[in-house]
Amino acid sequence: MNVFDRTINIDALFRFSQISHSTQVHLKNVYSSLAVCMFVAAAGSYVHVVTRLLQGGVLSVLGSLAMMFWLAMTPHNPETEKKRLGILAAFAFLTGVGLGPTLDFVIAVNPSIILTAFLGTSVIFICFTLSALYAKRRSYLFLGGTLMSGLSILFLMSLMNLFFGSVMLFK
Predict the structure, then answer these.
(1) What's CA 107's distance to the chain center, in Å?
(2) DSSP 45-93
(3) Pairwise CA distance, residues 171 & 163, whole Å
(4) Cα–Cα distance, 91 to 16 (Å, whole number)
(5) 17: Cβ–Cβ under 8 A, 6 or more apart, which residues?
(6) Which residues cross the membrane (predicted)?
(7) How many degrees, rounded to 5, is the angle at CA 103 between CA 98 and CA 107?
(8) How far apart (Å, rounded) are the C-alpha atoms in residues 6 and 71?
(9) Confidence at 16, pLDDT banded by 50, 70, 90
(10) Does residue 17 sit in helix, strand or coil?
(11) How many CB atoms lie within 10 A of CB 63?
(12) How far apart are CA 34 and CA 125, in angstroms?
C-alpha cells in the first residue's frame, strides 16, 4: 500500500474516545524507538567530542541522509523490523556525530549548555512518553504531555530557587 493512496479521516481528529490496545502498543513502540535514538545520538556526539574517532562533517551528513533514504526504501514487515531499527540507530548515531562541530562551538562558549539541553530534552520527552503510554482517553494525549512538562519546569525552578534565592523566581 502506497502512503499517498490512503484516505485521511478528518473526523478522527475530533473524536476523544478511548484509545484501543493496539494503538497503545504502537505508541509504546514509537516512543521506545525514539528514546533509543535519543541515546544513540548522544553516543554519536560523545564519540565526536570526547574520543575524536569520527569527525562530524560532510561525510556524516551524507551518511545520515543515506541511512534515512535506506530506511524509507526498506519495506515495513515483521521480517525487516530489526533491520529497520538498526538503520534508524545508525541514522541517529551519524546525526549525533554530525552535531559534533556545533557541540565543539557550544563547549567553547559554556559547556553546561549541553548538559542542560540534554536533561531538559529528556525530561520533556519522558513526560510526553508517560502521558502517551498511560492515557486511556485521547483528550489526555493533548493535555498530559504539556501539563507534565510545565509541572516539571515549575518543580525544577522551585528546586533551583532553594539554592539561588531569587525573588523573581519566588514570585
Answers:
(1) 22
(2) HHIIIII-SS--SHHHHHHHHHHHHHHHHS--SGGGHHHHHHHHHHHHH
(3) 16
(4) 35
(5) 137, 138
(6) 30-47, 53-73, 85-107, 113-135, 147-170
(7) 160
(8) 20
(9) low
(10) coil
(11) 18
(12) 9
Of 162, 90, 151, 98, nearest to 126 (Cα)? 151
Q: Give residue-wise pLDDT tens across range 83-142.
A: 999 999 999 999 999 888 888 888 999 888 888 888 888 887 887 777 777 777 666 666
Cβ atoms of 142 and 19 closer than 8 Å: no
Cell numbers found for residue 48 = 565526536
Block residue for cell numbers 557550544: 106
pLDDT higher than 60, residue 13: no
CA–CA gap between residue 66 and residue 19 (Å, rounded): 36
Q: What is the pLDDT of residue 3?
A: 59
Question: How many Å apart are CA 32 and CA 38, to the nearest integer?
Answer: 10
pLDDT in tens, 24-77: 788 888 888 888 898 999 999 988 888 877 777 788 889 999 999 999 999 988
pTM of the model: 0.70
What per-residue confidence (pLDDT) applies to 4? Answer: 65
Helix axes 21-46, 81-98, angle to 10 degrees: 40
